[in-house]
Amino acid sequence: MSRIVHLSDIHLRGREGKEYHNALALFRHINAQHAGDTVVITGDLCDDGRLNQIKALNELLTTHLTDVYTLLAPGNHDYALWGNLLNHDSYRNWHHHLGCPRAPRSVNRLTGPWFQSASEPWEHQALGPCRGVGLFIRDDVNTAFIAVDSADWEDREVLARGLVTPRQSRAVRTLLEHPRLEGFTRVVFLHHHPFIRASLATFTDYPEAWAMELTGATEFMEAVSGRCDLLLFGHRHVAETWEHAYGIPLIAAARKSTSALDGHLYYKSYRVEDHTVIQEMHQAPVR
Ligand SMILES: [Fe+2]
Ligand SMILES: [Fe+2]
User: Fold this and answer.
1) What does the domain layout of the chain look like in residue ranges?
2) Residue 7 alpha carbon to ligand 1 centre in Å
3) What is the CATH number of domain 4-285?
4) 4 C-alpha vs ligand 2 centroid, how far in Å?
């Protein structure tokens, strides 16, 4: 039985601080407890994408997540507004050091930047290289993972907003409908919340929505609705789940994974059986 461990919003500031120590404790725990499972990290891995943060992150992933398959999607703190305003190198830093999915034992290790590539030749024929969409297939556990870069690499949006282009949404739909993935569990993941909009209706419980929402969310949700088993994201640092919404068995948002509660770090895992998603809560001790 293979699980999908969901982490998000590490917000690493370098080799120091609570985020670093909590990430270290969390990664060590997950590596020991979830050997062979897939770990999906949905963005904001760094706090502003400076080189010391990217290097610290790369070292943590490479050294401590050795026995799991780790997949990343970037978030706005990795190279959108904060990274680009404070450090123009953040996008280049990410793709130089983290361009490939961290897949130490992957059956489909990629050799190029994950957002421009695909794991097998047929995907290029089916899709052509689509910037900002990555596909990772684990034939051993019959699961396909589609990563979507919503971190707005050209900085078209402001503040913490994200962007999924129409081309990305079309690519996601094409992959989800491709015969190669028939019978596979399909997991889609990105950083931004893809269906809460800034409006008067949401203002009372989500006043910051206008600065955080995802441009292109409607087209993206149309692409994934009824076509995947599990949709994962982070960004708001609030854990939430939606069952059977948008024709998807389970949609889940993760909290900030490096934020401890009562001396423990909490995270969830998912496994899919007969298109039913079973979720579990786990805890790791802060050391
Ligand atoms: Fe975040
Ligand atoms: Fe974010």
Assistant:
1) 4-285
2) 11
3) 3.60.21.10
4) 21
104 alpha carbon to ligand 1 midpoint, in Å?
Answer: 25
Task: Please provide residue 137's backbone torsions phi and psi, each rounded to the nearest 5 degrees.
Answer: -115, 130
Tokens 């931004």, located at residue:
192
Q: What would the pLDDT profile of 26-72 be if each residue is shown by its tens digit?
A: 999 999 999 989 999 999 999 988 889 989 998 898 889 888 888 88
Q: Are 1 and 271 in contact (CB under 8 A)?
A: yes
Helix, strand, coil percentages for the chain (3-state, nearest 5): 30, 25, 40
Instruction: For the beta carbon of residue 208, count every other beta carbon within 10 angstroms.
Output: 12
From the CA of 151, the nearest ligand is 2
Rounded CA-CA distance 281/179 in Å is 33
- CB 135, CB 50: distance < 8 Å: no
Query: For residue range 99-137, what is the model confidence (pLDDT) as tens digits?
Result: 654 333 333 333 333 333 333 434 444 555 567 888 888
